[in-house]
Amino acid sequence: MNTFKRHLFFTFLLLTTSVTGFALEFNAPKGPIILTLGGNIDETNQGDSMVFDRDMLMALPSHEVSTDNPWNEGVQTYQGFNPIDLLAAVDAEGDMLRITALNQYITEIPVSDFQQFGAIIAYSKNQEIMSVRTKGPLMVVYDFDDYPELRSETYYGRSIWQIQSIEVFNSKE
């Protein structure tokens, strides 16, 4: 999709979500699956899970975070989606995300981190799609520059890369 068409599409999404709330219908993925979402979700497209290819995730409203982090030299600009939009699109209910990486590293992140700190799940860095070799296909990115209090082991541990799955759950369960 060229830049002009993508801009029109996202403008349409922005207008429809401001009037009706976020609504996006996902069909079956056409490309390789890069994310499996499970847990407390109502919308599914594969058993009791929702699977996504890159294009499906890129259809969500796009967000950008520019920050310096311990894994790269200098400020990097990440583009991706806010999981809050993803959760709304699949009618998910929960206040926690259990995220698993390709190497089976698991971390739990409160949904409030994405509201309070504007953290995103990035699929590109400096306008280049992230591959497994570059910590992709997906990575949680916090803005460590705007929120220096996040420069701690807690938030470094939540900055998971090579994400393959997310489970939505309630911390009170």
How many E strands? 10
General form: globular
In which order are the strands of the major sheet placed?
2-1-10-5-6
Gyration radius (Cα, Å) is 15 Å
If you had to describe this structure to a student in words, what would you say it looks like?
The chain has 173 residues and is α+β, with helices and mostly antiparallel strands. It has one domain (3-21, 33-169): Oxidoreductase, molybdopterin-binding domain (Sulfite Oxidase, Chain A, domain 2), CATH 3.90.420. The protein has five helices and ten strands. The protein has a five-stranded mixed sheet. Strands 3, 4, 7, 8 and 9 form a five-stranded antiparallel sheet that branches. It is globular and about 40 Å long. The termini are far apart. It comes from Rhodanobacter aciditrophus. Residues 1-23 form the signal peptide. Keywords: Signal. InterPro entries: OxRdtase_Mopterin-bd_sf (IPR036374).
Detail the topology: elements first, then pairings.
Blueprint: H1 3-20, E1 33-39, E2 50-53, H2 54-58, E3 62-68, E4 75-81, H3 83-89, E5 96-101, E6 106-110, H4 112-116, E7 120-125, E8 128-129, E9 139-141, H5 153-158, E10 163-169
Parallel strand pairs: 1-10
Antiparallel strand pairs: 1-2, 3-4, 4-7, 5-6, 5-10, 7-8, 7-9
Note the main attributes of this structure.
5 helices, globular, 173 residues, alpha+beta, disordered N terminus, Sulfite Oxidase, Chain A, domain 2, 24% helix
